[in-house]
Design a protein that fits this description.
single chain, alpha/beta, 4 domains, 5-stranded mixed β-sheet, AAA-ATPase-like domain-containing protein, P-loop_NTPase, AAA-ATPase-like_dom
């Protein structure tokens, strides 16, 4: 059997070394038959995006048409009518997969370095082209010398596309791989707005003018909201894993996996392999496999079935959002972990501002497009596009256990640091935020039960136990008679010179209560004032008193202060 090209994403290298290659060349045919001029193709990591984009680059390249023709010998594209397009277009191919810097300035500096290299190595002939004017040559000369500013970089795709079109007499093919990698990094390191603004201008300059390019393809993991990145691209068509277009062009189909296993002599492992690595549905095509896992399994057959794909992940966004999930999202996540399928709507694009709310649609959409879930469209689900969602296979199932364990353990950090510190510093907004996250992680999901059914005394005991850490230096009193009623929780320092004090009143939302959780929290706060619960604290000389009404429902909580 031929060598397996694990970790290789350069089509030319794989073909020149005669490594094992699963023929995806009809991707070219489907692309050119598609009516859209620019296509966005989001796919999970390790599903062959960069390899396919590399193949497109070598196929269309007009500068090395004869040299690269042999790379496609024996592939299906040779028998397609689109074979006539081989070597007919200039190509711009950029990959952003490594543009993951800690600052915006570093990202721009690295991009400038990459573009300078491309201009010198790929398009050196433009410096002497008779078809270009002095302004064109001045632009690429400044770029090559590293004297371009950020506005020159934003114009790169437009300017180079225009020059290639002038020189060759035909508009180029424009390929952008992993466009969202620098956006993820920017979100993680705190310069999202700067990077989004740059990428919006950069992509719009290259793709907006329909006369500048023949065809454009953009790949990434997530579909970032159009208003954030693609607002200037009126000619953009998106085909995600929910669409039937290009469904078999990324990942491996069942016949392709069967052939690989037979070639390797492991055909008898077919069912075990399916249980571990099968299960994705792309559009209407079922039984899609992750190529990375299959190639690693065959290469390391003696080690058996292992979670290869999940061990390659950084997944910064997922690690960020899971500790914030609301009760609805958490219930769905636990159902999925038990092997259940759930019916739900999903957000088919990512708005980074929505990650803070961590609503079910946002969480499920992020997990789906990252490859942790798979979905099939339910017929007759109306305009909401409801999907049947599940974990695709045993390999990914192992990832869920790790992810849930990681975010459940985050509660200890909230408890020991943020929650009590925010209370003692009388920072009610910080306390409320920490309490919301603490509630999500401190209770076992199965102990807390369903919304509307947990007794109020459980919440009261939970809060009292949380405050027990304060006993050394504070009085912590529960159901203490104060004013004309009984406050649920009163806290004040044993130090008589410390003027601070705290009053917490709890309410639990029942099924027959029509008030929202926020309204219920406000009514708890109102009760503190109406019943004059501050009287006891005033009697102890406490004059800086934080009053808070807290309402619970399942693992959800709302605060008024």
């Amino acid at each position: 059997m031929k060598r397996l090209p694990i970790g290789q994403s350069d089509f030319r290298q794989i073909r020149n070394e005669d490594a094992y290659y699963i023929d995806k060349s009809l991707f070219i045919e489907e692309l050119m038959h598609n009516n859209a001029q620019t296509l966005l193709l989001p796919r999970p990591r390790r599903f062959g995006k960069t390899l396919n984009m590399s193949m497109l680059s070598y196929f269309f390249d007009i500068d090395h048409a004869e040299k690269f023709r042999a790379l496609f010998s024996g592939l299906a594209i040779e028998h397609s009518e689109e074979w006539k397009l081989q070597g007919k277009y200039p190509v711009i191919f950029l990959t952003f997969k490594d543009l993951k810097m800690a600052t915006f300035e570093q990202a721009i500096s690295k991009l400038l370095k990459e573009l300078r290299r491309d201009v010198s190595r790929k398009y050196g002939y433009l410096f002497t082209s008779n078809q270009l004017d002095d302004l064109d040559k001045e632009y690429i000369l400044n770029l090559r010398k590293g004297e371009a500013d950020i506005f020159d970089l934003e114009d790169y795709l437009r300017e180079v596309s225009k020059m290639l079109g002038k020189h060759h007499g035909i508009a180029p093919i424009l390929l952008i791989d992993e466009y969202d990698a620098p956006i993820h990094a920017a979100h993680e390191h705190g310069y999202l707005s700067e990077m989004v603004s740059f990428m919006r201008n950069f992509l719009s300059a290259g793709f907006k003018d329909k006369d500048l390019i023949t065809k454009g393809v953009i790949t990434g993991i997530l579909r970032v909201a159009k208003e954030d990145i693609f607002s200037g691209l009126n000619n953009l068509a998106t085909y995600s894993i929910l669409d039937y277009e290009f469904a078999d062009k990324f990942g491996l189909t069942q016949p392709e996996v069967d052939q690989l296993l037979n070639d390797a002599g492991y055909g008898t492992d077919r069912q075990n392999v399916a249980d571990w690595y099968n299960g994705y549905t792309f559009g209407q095509l079922e039984k899609i496999y992750n190529p990375w896992s299959i190639l690693n399994f065959v290469s390391r057959h003696e080690t058996g079935l292992r979670p290869y794909w999940v061990n390659t992940s950084s997944d910064g966004l997922i690690k960020e959002i899971l500790p914030k999930v609301n009760a609805k999202a958490q219930e769905l996540l636990f159902d999925l972990t038990e092997g259940k399928s759930v019916k739900a709507t999903i957000a088919d694009h990512t708005i980074f501002q929505d990650l803070e709310q961590a609503e079910a649609e946002t969480v499920l959409g992020l997990l789906l497009f990252s490859g942790y879930l798979t979905a099939s469209h339910l017929p007759h689900s109306g305009e909401t596009l409801e999907y049947n969602i599940r974990i695709p296979n045993a390999e990914v199932q192992t990832a869920y256990k790790r992810l849930l364990k990681r975010y459940l353990n985050a509660s200890e950090q909230v408890s020991n640091n943020e929650l009590l510190d925010a209370l003692l510093e009388q920072q009610p907004k910080t306390f409320a935020n920490a309490l919301k996250r603490y509630m999500l992680h401190s209770f076992s999901f199965f102990d807390i039960g369903k919304k509307g059914f947990l007794p109020e005394k459980i919440y009261h005991a939970f809060m009292l136990g949380t405050m027990a850490h304060l006993n050394q230096y504070y009085h912590v009193k529960s159901n203490r008679e104060s004013g004309i009623g009984r406050a649920d929780l009163i806290i004040y320092p044993k130090d008589q010179n410390n003027p601070k004090g705290w009053i917490l009143e709890f309410k639990k939302k029942n099924l027959d209560i029509e008030e929202s959780l926020e309204e219920l929290a406000q009514s708890a706060l109102d009760q503190i004032h109406e019943q004059q619960y501050v009287a006891e604290l005033n009697g102890h000389g406490k004059t800086e008193i934080m009053c808070m009404g807290i309402a619970f429902d399942g693992k959800e909580v709302a605060c008024a202060f």
